[in-house]
Amino acid sequence: MSVNAMKIQKIILYLPQKGDNMLKIKETIASIRTFMKGEKRSDSFPPSGYTFNSMSANGLAFGMTTERAMRFSAVYAAIRLRSNTIASLPKTLYSISDNRRETAKDHPVYKLLKNKPNPFQNPFVFWNFINTCVDGWGNSFVLIKREVSATPKALIPIHPTQVMISVQAGKKYYNVYGTKYYDGIYSDEDMMHFYFYSIDGIKGVNPIEYNAGAIASGIGAQEFGNEYFENKGNIRAVIETEERINKDNAKKFLDNFEESKKYGNPLLTHGFKWKNITAQPDSSQMIESKTLSIQDVARIFMVPPHLLGDLSRSTFSNIEHQDIEFVKHYVRPTVKMYEQEIDRKLLFEDERNKTESKFNLDGLLRGDMSARAEYYQKAVLSGWMSRNEVRQMEYLNPIAGLDEMLYPGNENKINDKNEEE
Question: What is the DSSP letter of 124?
Answer without folding.
Answer: H
